[in-house]
Specification:
Blueprint lengths: L4 E2 L1 E4 L3 H12 L4 E4 L20 E2 L3 H6 L1 E3 L5 H6 L2 H10 L4 E3 L4 E4 L4 H15 L2 E3 L4 E7 L2 E7 L3 E4 L2 E3 L14 H8 L4 E7 L3 E3 L3 H4 L4 E11 L4 E12 L3 E3 L1 H7 L10 E6 L6 H13 L16 H11 L12 H12 L1 E8 L7 E6 L17 E3 L7 E2 L4 H22 L4
Parallel strand pairs: 1-11, 2-3, 2-12, 3-8, 12-21
Antiparallel strand pairs: 4-7, 5-22, 6-7, 9-10, 10-11, 13-20, 14-17, 14-19, 15-16, 15-18, 16-17, 18-19
Length: 421
């Protein structure tokens, strides 16, 4: 037997490639993973701030609703491998899981390394080969069919090849865009690449004054000022940075921003979503009654985080040294409106290198949604972030990776072994 001839060859040892490789090897296929890094799962190790939000414990319809780009393409893949299936897989390899706010699923240990260890155990258990520090430079085709890949210093042969190299975000993890070059070389079109789930730059300088401040349980609304349309709104957590904003709410909002119209967007933050304006005014009256002889800027400590007080005072138009007992009803109303609608103008998105995922990629019209096989080249598959699909934050993008990798592996298994698995 040619020791470089495989049933299934996976280019990329990230989430989609690993799930595909484990599935194929488990079903008896001679499987090889080629990973350009010195270890597998390098990007998995930093997801969820090192905790790895492996999936979202939601329904099929909720999963589809969380996909921002080309959701219908993923309908079949999500049906074939569900979040419950993913959870069962990890728990079968010793990763105890927990479900947190927003149905986000994490390892009980809060260690992304446990997720990578599970894949390592599974690959070894089922006998998949893994070659590290090996960069694929060329696809080998014969009469429009895959027959293998070339590396810098070697060749490997397979009639079924999966490109699962990720996007261009976090290039230090190996996501340098190599897969797009391979895809284009085989005749595929790449839709425009940009960052998704990316921090947002803000025109106002207030954000740098509040740098490092995290807000929880606030409502963030993204609005297109030209159309007046609200394009995103949700409650959760965000933080201020030297350039603007980041955090879960902001990353999700970024998925709804059109790069070509970026300066027409504004972000509106409701700092007190649990109170309507009348209730908030009553709360202010109670707070002010306990601080009647204080300066205005010294009366907000129980209402706002310390780092935010100076910004709110400036925006309110109320003199910071004005005594609380002299604040008028009209001033108080303006303050309430400010706390319910704190507005910021979007000036840009951070570079793609700072994005959690890449938006854009291999055009899904050229890919079979059932199998992830190319419609242009027989035996060539794509899965995960390299495809032109992306979702909101919350474990949805890893579910896309696992489901598309699984769909690909199932098709290869059915080809070789015959019959559905």
């Amino acid at each position: 037997m040619n020791d470089k001839k495989y049933d299934f060859l996976v280019v990329g040892g990230g989430a989609s490639g690993l799930y595909a490789a484990v599935t194929a090897a488990k079903n008896g296929l001679r499987t090889l993973v080629l990973e350009r890094n010195e270890r597998i799962g390098k990007k998995l190790l930093i997801t969820g701030k090192g905790r790895c939000n492996v999936t979202n414990n939601c329904t099929h319809s909720e999963l589809i609703a969380a996909v921002a780009k080309n959701p219908r393409f993923l309908y079949g893949a999500f049906s074939r491998l569900t979040p419950a299936d993913v959870m069962t897989f990890f728990e079968s390899f010793g990763v105890t899981l927990k479900t947190e706010r927003g149905k986000r699923v994490f390892p009980q240990s809060d260690k992304a390394s446990d997720v990578v260890k599970a894949f390592d155990l599974a690959l070894k258990k089922y006998g998949a080969d893994v070659i590290l520090s090996r960069r694929v430079t060329e696809l080998m085709l014969q009469d429009g069919h895959m027959c293998g890949v070339k590396c810098d210093d070697d060749e490997y042969f397979a009639d079924n090849v999966l490109i699962a190299t990720g996007g261009k975000s976090y290039p230090l993890t190996g996501s340098t865009g190599d897969g797009y070059i391979l895809a284009e070389s085989s005749g595929h079109n790449i839709t425009e690449l940009c960052g998704s789930l990316v921090p947002i730059e803000i025109a106002q300088k207030d954000c740098s004054d509040m740098m490092g401040l995290t807000l929880k349980n606030v409502t963030l609304t993204l609005k297109n000022k030209a159309s007046g349309k609200v394009v995103f709104s949700d409650m959760g957590e965000m933080l201020f940075t030297h350039f603007g904003m980041s955090g879960p709410l902001v990353l999700s909002a970024s998925s709804h921003i059109n790069n070509n119209d970026i300066k027409n967007y504004e972000i509106i933050i409701d700092l007190k979503p649990g109170l309507n304006v009348q209730q908030l005014d009553a709360r202010l009256l109670r707070d002010f009654s306990n601080s009647l002889n204080k300066n205005f800027e010294n009366s907000l400590g129980s209402l706002l985080p310390r780092k935010m007080i100076s910004t709110i005072v400036k925006r309110s138009g109320i003199d910071r040294e004005q005594k609380v007992n002299s604040i008028t009803k009209q001033q108080r109303q303006r303050l309430c409106e400010l706390l319910k609608e704190l507005r910021f103008d979007v000036s840009g998105l951070r570079p793609i290198e700072e994005a959690i995922i890449t938006s854009g990629g291999v055009n899904v019209r050229e890919i079979s949604p059932k199998t992830m096989e190319s419609k242009l080249v027989k035996g060539l598959y794509f899965a995960g972030e390299i495809l032109d699909v992306d979702a909101y934050t919350g474990g949805f993008n890893l579910q896309i990776a696992f489901s598309t990798g699984y769909a690909c592996a199932c098709d290869v298994i059915e080809k070789i072994r015959g019959g559905a698995i």
